[in-house]
Structure formats: C-alpha cells, structure tokens
Amino acid sequence: MMDHSLTIGAMMERAENFFPKKEVISQTHDKIHRLTYKEIGKRTRSLMSALDKLGIQRGDRVGTLAWNTHRHLEIYFAAPGMGAVLHTINIRLSPEHIIYIINHAEDKIIFVDEDIFPLINQLHEHFTTVKTFVVMTDKDTLPETTLTNVYSYEDLIRDGDETYEFLEDIDERDPAGMCYTSATTGKPKGVMYTHRSIALHSYALGLADSAAVSESDVAMPVVPQFHVNAWGIPFACTWFGSTQVMPGPRFTPERLARFIEEYKVTITAGVPTIWLGLLKEIETNNYDLASLRGVLCGGSAAPIGMIRAFEQKHHIPFFHAYGATETTPLATFSRLKSYQADLSMDEKIQERTRQGILAPGLEMKVVDENGDIPWDNETMGELLLRGPWIANEYYNDDRTEKSFVNGWFHTGDVVTVDEEGTIKIIDRTSDLIKSGGEWISSVELENVLMAHEAVFEACVVAIPDEKWQERPIACVVLHDGYDGKVTKEELLDFLKPQFANFWIPDDVIFVEEIPKSSVGKFLKRELRKIVLTFMEQ
Ligand code: AMP
C-alpha cells in the first residue's frame, strides 16, 4: 500500500471538489454569513498566502482567541494547511493563564475576534513571541489600539492569493493543532495534535455507531472551537461535506433553538449546561426541532433528568460521549446495542447516563492498586487509554511523566465498567471543579485564599448545581483573633482580581476546622458532605 499521509489541507480540498455548493452558515457580531465550501476554500487559500507573507513558517504556532464562526473555521484549515500549527486559546481563562499559554506555545501571530480585542490591548506587553495580531470583524475599521502590528482579517483575505496551494509535503505525523487543558495545580497543560490524529479522529466521528457525521448532516457545534477543537466536529464536517452552522459570539439558548429550527440542524454538540439552557428555552417557547437526529453531550456527566426530558418529552435522541483534551477528544460513545432494544424506557434512559463504549481504534484498561478491575459495574478504577488519537505527552511539560506511563494515558477519571464494557465516570482522582463545561482548580483558589492575612486554612469543594453542573464553595478557618473581623465579601473581593469571574466561589463558609486524612491532606469528600448539610439548613 502507499504510505500516503492524511493531511488537513486534503480535507478542505475534498470539500472544495466534491461539495462546492454546500454551505457554512455563520453568525458574527453584525450579521449572518452564508458561504459555500467553494468560497471557504478560496478564503482559506488566501489566508494561507497571507500567513506566508506575514512570515509564518512551518511549525510556527498560530493562536486564536475567537468564537465559533466561519473565520475561525478557515484558520482551522489555513494554519495546518501551510504547515503551521493551529493553537486555539480558551478565552474564558484568567489573564494570567492566557499569557502563560501564549508564551508557552510561543505563538507568532494571534487571530482575535473584535469583542475580545480589548484583552489584547490589556495583555500584549506580556507576550514574548507574538509579532502580529489579526482582528476578525465585519467592520471597515479596526478597534482602537496603540499597537502598530494589527491587521484586518478581511483585508488579508481580499489581498491574498485564492489559488495558493495547500502544502504538499506534510507528513501526517507533523503537528497540526494545540489545545491547553487546566490542571489541578499549576499552569494549564498543552496537547499537540498531528494531522494524522485529527484525520483518524474525524473518521471516528463519522462511524455509524458513534456520531455518524455525514454529508447529509447540518451540524451545529455549540462546544467552543477553543475547547478541544469543538470536539473535532469542524474538521469532520468539512471533510465529509456536511452543512455547518456556527452560532457565533455570546449566543443565547434562544439563538440556538432558533438556528435549529431555521437551518434544520440535524446534530449539535455541547456540555450539559448548554443543554439545560436549551431545555428551559424550548419548554418556555415553541420551536419545531424535528430536524434534530442527535444532541451530543460530553465534558461533564449528563444529569438523568435532562436526558429524560430530551428523549421522552421532546423526542430528541440524546447521546452521551466522553473524552478529554488529551484524547482529541472522542474516546467513548453511548449507544444502545441492538439486543438492548427491548429494555424498558427507564432502563434505556439509565443506560444513556453511562458514557458508553470505546471507539474502534482505541484501547482501554481500568485499574486499581491491584491491577485490572473486574467489569462488574461496581468496582472502581482509573481509566487508562491508548490509541492513534490519544496524546503521549504534554507539550514541553514535566507533568508528562505522571500522566503518560508505559504507553498509557492515565485519564485521572475513576470509572466502573459493566459487562457490556460500558463505562460510567464516577469522579476525578483529583478534585477539579467543572462549571459550565470549564475547569476550576480548587487548589489554586485555596492557595490564594490562604494568602489572606485572616485565613488560616481554606478548602474549596464542588457542590452540584442545576445550571452549571458544579460550583465552588470555599470553607475557611480563620486565624485566632479574626473571628467576626472579616466578611465573606472581603474574601471574595480578595480573589476577584486574580481569577476569571466564573472561578469565584458561590459562597464562603466559616468553619472551626477542615477534616484531614492520615497524611494531613484535606478530606474533600468529608468536607463536601459537611457543606451540603450546611446548605440544606
Ligand atoms: P477537558 O480536557 O476539559 O475536555 O476535560 C476532560 C474531562 O472532563 C475528563 O477527564 C472527564 O473528567 C470529564 N468528562 C468528559 N466527558 C465526560 C462525561 N461524558 N461525563 C463525565 N465526565 C466527563
């Protein structure tokens, strides 16, 4: 057989050649754009020529701080298409983490949506490698700035060469993309994807027993393009010629419901918080959502009530999937097996709360301190994964050794497995808090709280939250003599300058002591119980 590389440029070429009339519908700040793959292809090529002219070379990192739009999609193909590396940056991280990520990845150029540009004005002095900024806007003028190296995206496209060729001699193992994921302690960790891993992962999204993405789909990725490449959906959909609907900046549940109805969206994907919002919207207002053949949900465990509402009340098939930044991300997908057809409705819904079985091409092990656990639906162990779209290291990071051991990625997720091989995520081995699909590090909050002069000990735990899945609550032991001298508000104000808004705990509870384990670590499980009892009172 030919040793032929799977490349991201070839994915776009396929869309140009075989689906020139199919469309990408994209909401930007000012309007809806409808562009065919023929047009998107030309714009992508123009963008590659612009990157070339701006001095971007093979292997250089191309950063994006952007919402889900057609422009972001074009960068998805232009950067790797000319040999550079697409680096999508999570706009919701704290300024400190955004600076860290940009410098650690050594981004050379940053593409930024107009409403996020003020952040660049604020932070650019801290960037060590960025030479150029490109603003994505529908307007003829650029936002105000003292920076001189700022270009307009649409000017670059207009002045570019729409016949520019995708680089031919790319090896499929060359880097194509990067995402950072937040860690329990310390800085975010980077994962580098290759052309090969993204292509194979796209195939996996197309399999009939997973998301079954195909040409006939109208796909709306609600999951941000900066969260594991919108779970790879833009790559797969372009390759397969599906229509794509990009919901754009600061979307609301109303916009999502309206887009599903108007553009006859067949498949959409996002974290549980998004679907809780959509559910509320469709239960308040009338929409025709009959086109939907699947709502894909991942990133956090999907609550059973929500699955039941989608499936039973609204007759919308609901698919639970599991993965991580390190797994590109699709690792498991939940579908009933053919012989499970006669399960009762309740049993089927129960089944859908599980995260499903492993995608073909991947391998898993679930281990505890005694080795492989039995698949008895009771014994818990850590999920280990390997396969062609599973990372084998963190980018330039000492923490690699801890998570990648003997060829297996240690997910940090504790699961049970039933006799069907279906996994259920029980908890993290660590105690990260997941709010609205984003991570919050309890340890970082604790460390800062404990830097306050009145605070002796601080421990932050997650409590379940209907809207956000989880929210942080801080428990604080005050130093002697500070009783009644410091308020909750003062402590929260102390945190605010150092963290993104959504990191700030919902409450501070003053306690006498924090339960600890035999080696002096906070016993978070115990504390969580105390907090829940306290909150019930
Ligand atoms: P991230 O790298 O931000 O995508 O986060 C990955 C982590 O999210 C996983 O290691 C899990 O802890 C969690 N996660 C992802 N999908 C699910 C799911 N379907 N159910 C429960 N937890 C999930």
TrEMBL record:
Residues 15-395 form the AMP-dependent synthetase/ligase domain. One of its GO terms (biological process) is fatty acid metabolic process. It comes from the Bacteria. GO terms for molecular function: ligase activity. The keyword Ligase applies. SUPFAM superfamilies: Acetyl-CoA synthetase-like. Residues 444-521 form the AMP-binding enzyme C-terminal domain. The keyword Ligase applies. Keywords: Fatty acid metabolism, Ligase, Lipid metabolism. Belongs to the ATP-dependent AMP-binding enzyme family. This is Long-chain fatty acid--CoA ligase. The lineage of its organism: Bacteria, Bacillati, Bacillota, Bacilli, Bacillales.
